[in-house]
Amino acid sequence: NAGVTQTPKFQVLKTGQSMTLQCAQDMNHNSMYWYRQDPGMGLRLIYYSASEGTTDKGEVPNGYNVSRLNKREFSLRLESAAPSQTSVYFCASSDMDRGLLGNQPQHFGDGTRLSIL
Amino acid sequence: GDSVTQMEGPVTLSEEAFLTINCTYTATGYPSLFWYVQYPGEGLQLLLKATKADDKGSNKGFEATYRKETTSFHLEKGSVQVSDSAVYFCALSEGAGSYQLTFGKGTKLSVIP
Fold first, then answer.
1. Contact A110 B104 (CB under 8 A)
2. What strands, in cross-sheet order, belong to the sheet with B75-77?
3. Closest chain A residue by Cα to residue B94
4. What is the DSSP secondary-structure string of chain B?
5. pLDDT tens over chain B, length 113 residues
């Protein structure tokens, strides 16, 4: 019962360094998402991928890039990390093939805690 | 745009007390509404959902009713347990096929024995 798996769980970077956060899901879901969670801000959508081969910007995409490598994997890249990107990052997936039944819930990973000094 | 407003936390209750966490929303269409729960050190888990007006979502003793007239989706539980201590998020998604969730800021609940 892996669900959504994120790696790494923790990371400390220096300003200007680059890094890729990895996410994989084993539920055969079409849609995948990257969020950041900051104190007092709830979760904000960075990017999402409605299906394999497509990606779209969310609410806070600046400073990030994404790759939907295949149906299972969706990575988030910080090209030049900044202290403002210190946050907890969550990956999620959902099954949009069942859209006729209403909006489907999203399944979340356990998060990556990223600190940028 | 869409928005979700939750009551400010933290909320501290004694075991077996009644819980209400208020949630109101602003949306242009007919959204689906969700409550997610986040236990310490973990990701969010779906707690319950409702997809149309007057629907009641329920799970693990928690309930919430979709009230279109008051644009609300308040979370309730009749008797909380220490294991319910977590952060609770209200969220909405606009219409069938929408890919985006709009979250409230979260309400931290602590239940003391």
1. no
2. B19-21, B75-77, B62-65, B56-59
3. A103
4. --EEEE--S-EEEETT--EEE-EEEE-SS--EEEEEEE-TTS-EEEEEEE-STT-EEEETTEEEE-BTTTTB--EEESS--GGG-EEEEEEEE-STT----EE---EEEEEE-
5. 789 999 888 999 999 999 999 999 999 878 889 999 999 888 899 999 998 899 999 999 999 999 999 999 999 999 999 999 999 999 998 765 666 788 999 999 999 99
